[in-house]
Fold each of these.
Amino acid sequence: MSYKKVYLNPKKEESLKRFHPWVFSGAIHHIDGTPEEGEIVEVYDSGKHFIALGHCQIGSIAVRILSFENEPIDKTFWKKRLEIAYQLRKQLGLTGNSHNNTYRLVHGEGDLLPGLIVDIYAHTAVMQAHSPGMHLSRNELAEALKEVLGDSIENVYYKSEDTLPFKADLDAENGYLIGGQNVPAIAIENDLQFHVDWVKGQKTGFFVDQRDNRSLLERYSKGRSVLNMFCYTGGFSCYAMRGEARLVHSVDSSAKAIALTDENIALNFPEDTRHQSFADDAFKYLDRMGDQYDLIILDPPAFAKHRNVLRNALQGYRKLNAVAFEKIKPGGIIFTFSCSQVVSKNDFRLAVFSAAAQSGRKVKILHQLAQPADHPINIYHPEGEYLKGLVLSVE
């Protein structure tokens, strides 16, 4: 099949030769024809040598590379990529597991499917497109998903209204592409049950990326007074409860998130009085909370989604962690995270270091945390390493 051709400026093919999956608009010399938003294009260097195939789009990232081989991008292609992704999750022990039926099947560039996210919740796959090209391919992708996963998947829900570039003007609508009748919305993660709201909730309905870090928290929780800031669905809170925490307090500014946390606590620990939840602003709660906690989780939403707000984001991380260092009991443990892709590991660590120095407390790093293996990082695309975390001991 013949596609429209994109020609690069001299020497702008170097990153592609190192298999980086993006072509920036400034690297393009000219395009033969006028490809529509999300259309597949061929990319050539200035010497007119073929380099790759990808989805074109408006914006600084002009092409997202799908393949460095000249091959048809069709249902067979999608099925092959999805099969490779599924086999990896199978090797990780995440599929066909009665203790855990919640995992990420596709993690964008990490699975060589840039612009696509697929999370599995029991028998439902929630698909999210971050590029016009993946949006246009959604029905083929849903069919390929069903063929790869077979009877283990009964529903495919498409949720991309808020993730596609607004300039694309695609009029995307959320909804079921496959199935959708009386779908149970409870998923199991490490034998804990969680209500997942993929219709109205954030992201795909649950933060699958903290699974391993929640398990680690459980091991530190016994006998401690735990504060879970930015609790959302109460994932960390449920693990702390099972870890025999003395008490667990969950805080989120969203009343809907607090209601969902309370539902999940009741689902797993009915009539357990150790848990309380508070719909409150994080900084206001931290300022007045006193020194009652000896385990604090700080897992805020992304403070920086774009590089032009990086400085303000780092100030936010410093401020947030400084209050925790000031208030936590001696011998306490802090789990602190950043999920901002534009915040590097070094930037985040420096922000936390500055907060620790400001507090004057003695602080040790016990663990350096990251996203789990079902959120793989393409070695040629370091930007995919978005989740950073530290576990800190505070004297």
Amino acid sequence: MDKIGIVVAMEEEKNAVYELMEDVDMEESYELDFYKGKIQGKKCVLVQSGIGKVNAARTTQILIDKYKIDRVINVGAAASINPMLNIGDVLIGKYVVQHDFDITAFGHSKGYITGVGNNIRCDSDFLYKVEEKIEEEKKFNKKEENKRDYNIKIGIVATGDVFCSEVDMRDEIRGTFNADAVDMECAAIGQVCYLDNVPFVVIRGISDTPDGNNAGTFDENLELASKRCSEVLNEILSDKF
């Protein structure tokens, strides 16, 4: 049976996933708490990395090395930069990019990483199942009582070591990368997984949108975004996707 590693950045995100787990044991290593247990009968190891690319990358490598992880799922909140993606919706990553990685001075496009490329594709088999599920729900949801309270979309997540709050920055990232959401961890996690040849999945709940005043909106909606992510994660691990 595959062993799944689940990486989150913040306490609220960790708590939402932890509530799904059974038979949990915790062990501390490298000053990180690793929660070993099961979700829907699947072996999982949950860890909170802290915010930012370095924390996320470090934690992911420790997780893979220590627990021999077969698949990594990154779960957490993100800001929408696509007007069709609303607070409370869930974005499944198709690609991840690092919007603040810049070696354009050497003739490369913004976000290009030597040895990696312009972006990192998330697990193709998983994405195929998600696409099928979304199409099924479109047919099933013709009846109003069957509809979710939120949408699940597939798109591009752009990562950088900055909390994106400015409209100009939002529009630049959207225009440069055709991204749908921004966060501070997932592309760093994705890069580690790519280099380690470990399949990688991103589930991000929308908590805010950069508008010059979204730090407060993020705080207000962090628990909601975390809860929505955990609901989708639970469905995925129950093989409903």
Amino acid sequence: MKKIISIALALFMIVLGMSVFSSCSKKDNVLVMATNAAFPPYEYVEGNEFVGIDVEIATAIAEKLGMELQIEDVEFGSIIGGVAEGKYDMGMAGLTVTEVRKQSVNFSDTYATGIQVIIVNYGSSINTLDDIFVFDDEGNPTALKNANLKVGVQQDTTGDIYSSDDITNWGFNDIEEDGTVTTDRVVRYKTGAEAVEALKSNKVDMVIIDNEPAKSFVNANDSIHILDGDNEYAVEDYAICVAKGNDELLDKINQALKELKEDGTIDKIVNKYINSGN
């Protein structure tokens, strides 16, 4: 009997020791951020390091929270789901606040404004929105001037969401009242860079993407340009997403953002990347 008790006690001590070791080795002060590091100047890889506006703002937030930032580079379309499931603490990837996304996660206060623009090849017949849409007397789109138009986007971005809507809602698809897509003119790529390469090789007629990444792609490619003038496709807000119910973290992030806005840190970071032409 004593032998059985001794064995049981020994096993208990081993399990307890493993539990203590596990709890001691767990990094409770790590803030895990999911991003897609192919979206300059917000997040991208330079050398072997993650850099960009979001990366620096996230680092500043982590410092405010007394935490270590850990960045996970994942596909853009998996960020919302991963945060919602608790796989990551937050998502920060030039994320636009939309009603659909708010069904899965909560968003912080806005820290930047994004503008969706259109990139085309030099020599393209598309120079303004008037070359794309037929408008009614009130300025609403009713049809496409080219029914065979192909639009390149990064999958699951708001450029994808907006473009995939019906033409009457400023999209490029033909959609029935029951939601059936009869003509899908949107070509989806994993990254904006892949969409741009498709444009350069004439696989698509134009690319819709956020303005700052668009500038980066245009600066690196002499054969493409952003539509000039008053041709913005959409204006939107960027924010950080966290899991629903994680109000404590959301409050801390919002407080950190507030302080970083007030002391000029966010403006300094944004201006560093945008004004440098990255």
Amino acid sequence: MCKKCQEPFRRLEGKKVVVGVTASISIYRVPDLVRDLVKLGASVTCAMSDASQKLISPEIFLWASGNQTVTEISGRVEHISLFSDPGNTLLVIAPATYNILGKMATGISDEIPSLMFAYAFGHGVPVIVVPAMHEDMLRNPVMVDNIRKLSSLGVRFVSPRIEEEKAKISENISIIDEIYRSLNHSNMDGKKALVISGRSEESLDPVRVISNKSTGTTGYWIARNLYRLGASHITLIGNASQPLPPYINHILADSTDDFYRETKAELKSDTYDIVFVPAALSDFSVIRQSRKIESGKELSITLKPRKKLLDTIRSEHNGTLVSFKLDHEGMKAVNPGSNQEYIVFNEIRPEGRTFGDNTAEYQVFDKEGRQDIIADGKEEATWRLILHVAGE
């Protein structure tokens, strides 16, 4: 893989993220988050409470961000000057303790993170809160009311991971995706999306299957980028080589029959604005043997053509449809079946570089003609594809 392809997709270039750090044991996770944000192009400044400075040195956050850590409010009025460009600035409270959430909900600003919130939120800056505390504290009715109040006012929350009776700080990918969403939510705002992704299997016997090399990477990034761009509900049917974030409704499908059954059921039970189909599904069915096939014997397998899943989708879905076609040679101009249909062609490349997070060269066909998308990875390629479909 080329070196450039391994670099992060720097969609946060030109954005400023202020991280308000409070005194939770989860503080040890925050420098890693800061480093990830810097790699994505963001300018990050950390602002620490007095209590948090007893747990970790401000020098760690200077190292992680490259910017001086705010440990006191000086004549530079940092709680105001850091938010001089509200359209490109965002405040993240991470980790957010029971104490800081109580102060935010009741208008108390007696230390640096709560003071940052008091000004930033009033100045129109998006605010993201990343809670971390004992589970019983999170379930406390007072805390439930505080979260409900802040949410109703427009504060965004990244749900913690509940483990060992603790509400642990969320994984970095969920926090980062919420940051993207806060800055780009208008593109797919309110849209419901279905993604059919991954590879399918055809069973030969109870232990053997016929499959393909698809990793599900394209569908994984479509789902994440749909959330980043504001989609209100995202369902993914299929499988992926990477764990999916919790905000994606994942319906597992492995066999081709699973894909057909779950897709049809989902389209009948819900209405979607847009359906993406990057899945690599078998075009054939086989007769499954009830017992394990004996080794050492020559075997013939009969493959019978299947009806295309796209035909089923077209009959059940009235919104936008984005299908993917994989082949050896570039497609000539095609005429999609409706004004709401897009066909994405991806050429089979040698040495297995077709699958996984490699460079992507898409030819996108719709009623208006052809649009080429060339990107250094599936994350960037699918981002651009969604924007194209959204008319951006």
